Amino acid sequence: MIICYCFQVTKEEIESRIANGETLAGIRATTGLGYGCGGCASLAERAWGVESASEAANGSSPRAVGVKIFP
Ligand code: FES
Predict the structure, then answer these.
(1) Which domains does the chain carry?
(2) How much is the pTM?
(3) Å from CA of 43 to ligand 1 middle
(4) What percent of the chain has pLDDT over 70?
């Protein structure tokens, strides 16, 4: 599934790179994700962005509660 149409970045690529320890910022820097029209930036940040310390501590981060933004 393509997340970033401007740079043809897929959900699978992002998730694979996150699983291998890359950060969203690093992925953005190397793929251009979010730097074209910007339409995908907020969705990518919500799905794979850095969770705040308070979210991590109280279990309310998107990852902790299993929020599924993309199909
Ligand atoms: S869709 Fe990602 S920058 Fe345009």
Answers:
(1) 2-65 (1.10.10.1100)
(2) 0.72
(3) 10
(4) 69
